[in-house]
Each structure stands twice: as C-alpha cells, then as structure tokens.
Amino acid sequence: MKNNLVLIAGNSHPELAKKISAKLGCPLADVKIQKFSDDETFCRIYTNIRKRDVYIIQSTSRPVNDNLMEMLIIMDACKRASCRSMTAVIPYYGYSRTDKKDQPRVPITAKLVADLLTVAGADRVVTIDLHAEAIQGFFDIPVDHLYAMPIFIKYLKENLGTKNLVIVSPDAGGVARARAHAKRVGADLAIIDKRRKGNDDQTEILNVIGEVEGKNCVLLDDIIDTAGSITKAAKVLKQQGADKVYGMAVHAVLSGPAMERLQKSPLQEVIVTDTIPLPKERRLKKIKVLTVSELLAETIKRVYLGESVSSLFI
User: Fold this and answer.
1) Of 96, 154, 218, 219, which has the fewest CB atoms closer than 10 Å, so is most exposed?
2) How, if at all, do strands 41-45 and 31-35 pair?
3) CB–CB of 190/166 below 8 Å?
4) Block mean pLDDT (10 aa), the chain, length 314
5) Rounded CA gap, 19 and 3, in Å?
6) 3-state helix, strand, coil in the chain (%, to 5)
7) One domain, residues 140 and 272
C-alpha cells in the first residue's frame, strides 16, 4: 500500500499528520514550506510523487487565510508534479459558517472555498463535521463527510456512563446532532431555547425544553468559538437543577475570551477533538482532547484501496 500512497502535511497541524502517518505506517513526504520576506508562501516537494496518490492533511483553522492559501499552493505543486490523484484531508473546514446568503450583499464563502479547492486540482475532499450538511453540495467532486460521533459515544460510555445522562442541544439548529448522540448512547434529550440579539456571540437564553433536574447534562455542539453560548447554556442548566454539566464539541476554535469563559464556567469538563491544534499552554485542566487520527487514517486507507467508507459516516 505504501508504494503509491503519499502523505503531505501542511503547517496547520503537524502533530495530527504525524499521528495519521504512524497509524498508516506511511512516512510523511519530504516537503519544504517557507515564507519569503514579503510573506508570500513557497512550497517544494522533494519526494517523487509522479503517478502517485497524494493526501494533503491541512486544517483551515487560525490563521485561516494563511492555512487555506498554503494548502492551495501545495496542491498546485502536486498537480504540476504529475501526481495521479489528490485528496484534500481537511479535518476542520474553515469558512463553513458562511454557508448561505442570509443578508443583503454578503458572500457564501463556504462555496468559494469549495471552488478554490476544486480549481486547485482536488479530486476528493475528506472532512469532519461540517457546520452545515449542505456544504457537501457545494462541491462537484466527491466529499467524504465524516463524523466524530463514534469517538464521543465511546468516551461517554466509558467515562460518564449512560445512567442519569441527558444530551443537550445548545440551540434548535443542533437538535438533529444531539438526538443522534442521545439515541446511540441511550440518553434523554433536552434543548436550549435561545434567541440571538446583537452580535453573533451575544445570546439571550430563554428556557430549557426537557427534564434536566438532577441529571448529568452534556452540551453538544460542532464548534466552540468564543464559548459564549455554551457557558451561558451551562449556567442555565445549573439554575434548572442539573447535577453536573459537560461540554462536548468537535472543533475547538477557542478564540477571543473563550479560555477565560470556560475556566470560570460551571462546566465540569469540556471534551473536544484534535481537528484543530490546541497548544499545551492553552489546555485547561477541564479540557479533554480526543484524537481523530484513527478515523482519518482508516478513511485514507479505504479511499486509497477503493473500499467503502460508508460505515465510517455513522
């Protein structure tokens, strides 16, 4: 398998790329990525990739524009080096929250990024927990949309147990995700009814739909950005009599005041994945990071061998 499989790591998340490489038993390609004095990015691939299948591992997380442009440049280098196929492995798909034209004269940036990746030469995209399912339709190439749910379900069963457990959606938009987790883990479901006001990170939480008194509650979301919503939701759950409150999200963006808010919040633990790098100095004691490396490695192996990946979508 290793002869024609090539793994290339961008600079956004080398730690995750190394884990994937180790699980596949395939070394990372020798690639030099540098910036010139005017901040332009340059890439040179020293490994021969002619007629080989290339998988480029790059989360388009902060700094989003730099990491996205770096990925496009790597892809262009691969295309011009005559690779046989090129798969963009994007654990965190940046710009995914701008997925519709809900205001006058605004872009649909998630679609723009999809176009850029396609034009740059991607034959396939592998990603995890897109903010909106519809983004798959923005591509004219295959998209393997994976979910971190099996990883979370395993952790919940092994560490929290299923007794007295409630999965809580922080808003109406996340109900389907929360219901799926609740069904798989055998827990009850609750919903935070909230109304946004002012800026995007300012929310007014109205009430809790569902029984949470005396329960262990898990607030489930796809992204924790400034942590405003999840920490406010945790306070309301405690006010409603919840025993312990946990936070669980796939993508730990954690920008702005997020770390301070999480530290001061009543959240017992915050469980996230490593789709986005989280430096050790930013890892609070209450943050638990689960790895998606095994999920991505298995997906890459199956795509390369032409095997079904459907069972990984659940």
Assistant:
1) 154
2) antiparallel
3) yes
4) 86 97 97 96 97 98 96 98 98 95 94 97 97 94 95 93 91 90 94 70 72 95 94 94 96 95 96 94 90 97 93 70
5) 19
6) 35, 25, 40
7) no
Q: Determine the 3-state secondary structure of 119 from DSSP.
A: helix
Q: Which residues pair with 41 in a beta bridge?
A: 35
Which CATH number characterizes residue 165's domain? 3.40.50.2020
Helix (H) or strand (E) holding 224: strand 216-224
CA angle 71, 2, 73 (to 5 degrees): 15
Q: Are residues 107 and 235 in the same domain?
A: no
Instruction: Give the closest residue to 250 by CA, choosing from 266, 271, 219.
Output: 271
Quote the pTM value: 0.93
Residue 280 designated active-site: no
Of 19, 111, 194, 232, catalytic:
194
Give the chain's length.
314
